[in-house]
Amino acid sequence: MSENRIYLDHSATTPVDPRVVKAMAPYWNDVFGNTESSHAFGREAANALEGARQTVADVLGCRLSEIVFTSSGTEADNLALRGAAWAARSAGRGDHIVTTPIEHHAVGRTVDQLRELFGFEVTRVPVNRHGLVDPDDVSAAVRRETVLVSVIMANNEVGTVQRMVQIGRICRERAVLFHTDAVQVPGRLPLELDEMNVDLMALSAHKFYGPKGVGLLYVRRDTDLASAITGGDHERGRRPGTVNVAGAVGLATALELAEERRVEEYVRLRSLRDALIEGVLARVPDSQLTGHPKYRLAHHASFVFRGVEGESIVQALDMESIAASSGAACAEGEVEPSFVLAAMGFAPEWGIGSLRLTLGRSNEESDVTRVLEVLPGTVGRLRGGA
Amino acid sequence: MSHDCRVMVALSGGVDSAVAALLLADRGYEVSTITLLLREEQNGGAVPSPEAIDRARAVSDQLGVEYRLIDARDAFRTEVVDYFIAEYTAGRTPNPCVPCNRFVRFGFLLAYALALGDPHLATGHYARIHRLDGRCQLLRGRDSTKDQSYFLYRLIQEQLAHAMFPVGSLTKEAVRGIAARHNLPVKEQAESQDICFLPDGDYRRFLAEHAPHALEPGPIRDTEGRMLGRHQGLAGYTIGQRKGLGISAPEPLYVLAIRPDENTLIVGTADALGRDECLVEEMHTISGEEPSDPFRAEAQIRYRARPAPVTVEPLGGRRARVRFDAAQRDITPGQFLVLYEGDVVLGGGVICETQHSVL
């Protein structure tokens, strides 16, 4: 990181790893062909693309045919939800979808559109105050008309990790497709597709030190999927559009590197993060950790501070060259708590004071020390105190 | 869990109900099928026809499920046929499919299913049920060209709670495709607007036998009371009708009102036809709550009518005044006015005798 800036927003995005940049270099103007072309330029590009696909398949432990490259994690979620829902309904399997109230908008708004514009019926199972879904609630919500269950594996705002194996088992028993937005997961938690019985999974390269503009949808074999984007035959017709070979290579390289370093980074970041949490809760009065204290992403620390606006804290930290984010949003001049915190039962006076600090490769102990120096005073001043 | 998965499917011998049964069986429900015997006449006016019953039986055999033929002739005669005759006698134009669904299919048949321990009754209707907070919502079928929610507007929460419409979220094309892929032994019925118990849609022959006075010729008058000609029995005419009046006039004439007490047909020019409001009685809401304040909705004044924006003003006693944003030409007493909010069926009522402002 240049200068003395401290970046604590790794869940928003990450810098591209220099090794990934290097791996992508040939694909701008050296190997530049369209993978669908029949000549040598096309073949080279196709080989590179399939090489990237093989790398991903090796990391995820899946088949080549189960990988679809997209432009983003959001697009992967859209393709998974619309594609699976439309296909299942046309085959007469039903029109009911089960999901949670704490999904990323890429899932939540897509499901809402499926309900409003496409006539699907939607049930959202509740979450507890830690943002955890009870698998029994999922089981109760699933009916014979249910075609899809979608649960975010690790929530971006509060870090909670769901009981994926149990939910996956329910889906398998009830013969319902299981989709998950796993965008926050690579490099942080293992991705065991078969153990979790996941049928559809969305990833996004720029969250694990890969480039922006490329994502991935894992589609389990024999899953019927209509395409959300229609056009040529790229990606077996599931996602037409000339493939971003450089991006795919970048994603694959980044995924491989993230998996290599996962365990080591877990240990390193966890101890930094725990020190951060301990320090904040001790030094800032009226503060709470949000999300599950134990089943949470190891790099993720999210708080609520009573009676202060999270966005103001973010701006104040920015003036101290510390980058963080808040879940609260400004809507029509009024600050509102995030829908995630609302679903978890936080009252507005707490919910608007949300702050998220997410650690990554660039962070060290000195970053934690600096935040703990700055934050208490910042919150105090914003509260109208010293 | 095991009790909850039993469902009785009403088969007509047609594609839609057959596919409904197949989809439910695929989803793991314990399906049994039935056909309702509605009418059996000496001279071949059987509903359903023997061929249709054979097809229903064949579908059940292919699915490997239990099949029963259930005698609903009494219920059908009382609730549907008698209603039909009474309406024509009163100078109104009936829609017998509505009471048939309410009293025969989801009345008599549902009671039968529940008595047998089947908590669900499924049909091949193009309509949908969504459950929200313990209440049922009735929605249009997803295929707007086939939507049959109109006929189901009169169902109550208790009936909807047990009902299932498996093909409601599919297009007709998708349903045909499923039937073809599974080689279901069904015949594609030509889309028929005829009433099921009238062979060839010949209501004249039916009424000649059951309500002959509805076919008695009488005077046709204009709005001033002047005699213009003779009609061939009020049953042959409906509001807004232009053809068959047998009157030559400088301008086209349309049926404005039907007066059964005087056996008189009132006709007039097109500009007298447009009405922008009507009275509705026997108002029913799917939610079960009686509205007290005026509200906006879209109204269909017959099965295939385009939804028209309206303002509904409840008048108490389950009556309401419905004001149309745009004048309608064929608001017909006796027809059902069904209210929608987008795809959701709000409810509806029976269109009353409308007083023509000039008379």
Summary tags:
heterodimer, A: 386 residues, alpha/beta, 7-stranded mixed β-sheet, 3-stranded antiparallel β-sheet, globular, B: 359 residues, 6-stranded antiparallel barrel, 5-stranded parallel β-sheet, 7 helices, 17 strands, 24% helix, 30% strand
In short:
The complex is a heterodimer of chains A (386) and B (359). Chain A has 386 residues and is of the alpha/beta class.
Order of helices and strands of chain A: EHHEHEHEHEHEHEEHEEHEEEHHEH
The N- and C-terminal alpha carbons of chain A lie at a distance of: 32 Å
Class of secondary structure makeup of chain A: alpha/beta
The level of helicity of chain A is 40-55%
Task: Identify the most extensive interface between protein chains.
Answer: A-B, 13 and 23 residues
- Give the strand line-up of the largest sheet of chain A: 2-8-7-6-5-3-4
Kindly report the spatial arrangement of strands forming the biggest sheet of chain B.
12-15-14-13-16-17
The assigned structural class of chain B equals: alpha/beta
Tell me the number of helical segments of chain B per DSSP (H or I, 4 or more residues long): 7
Strand runs of chain B, count: 17
Radius of gyration of chain A (CA) equals 21 Å
